[in-house]
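Trying the structure run again after the queue cleared.
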Amino acid sequence: MYNWYVDTVIVIPARMHSTRLNGKPLLRRNGITLIETVWRQCVQTGFDVVVATDHEDIAIEVDSFRGQVAMTKSSTPTGTDRVAEAVYQTSYKYIVNVQGDMPYITPEQILDCQSLVKQFDVGTLIYEMKQIELYNPNSVKCIAVQHKRIKQQVQECKWFGRMEVPYGYHHAGIYAYRMNALRQYQRLSQGYYEQLEQLEQLRWLENGYRIFAKITTPIAGEINTQEDYDTWVS
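Done. Tokens:
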């Protein structure tokens, strides 16, 4: 899997059985599955790309469009843990986690997120939240602040949640990590708030790590529900 000329790999964690929309990686739009749509956006960056899954049907689909697959354990608790498992024995310096339900993500946004780990252990993207999203638990909110000593336009993420946060940003489902930080994450236990909110990024904050974010242009959403899928295909 490792390309000696590339220091970054994009890992797309994909699981078959979602409680809100079962089998969504294999749902199609114009004959192309959701997982292939996300993969096509990722490969445009020039980084290596691998899909991390525990389901044979997803692996077969990825093979059909000549993508790379890393099979992971069915017991792996979160997407970040799945990413860590997929790359644990590789020599990449940087890893980008692009969730498999983000067909609207652009290659430019992926590159922007990756640039953060040249300076920080963990990076992500946030953007201005529409009023209607404040009351949607599928729209993850981020409280972030600007630091004067950081000259570039980077925010530090202080908290993530699903409930209404009128002064928060919308958190995009993309992360970038340095390899050492990701390996450490895999050794940490799930914390109280991570389990309460069902947000794996809270494990970083509950264990004293810092997450930094760039503000990006709004993303049209993720495919979390049947309504999201209907909007995507319409």
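The chain has a mean pLDDT of 94. Worth checking whether this holds up in the mutant runs.
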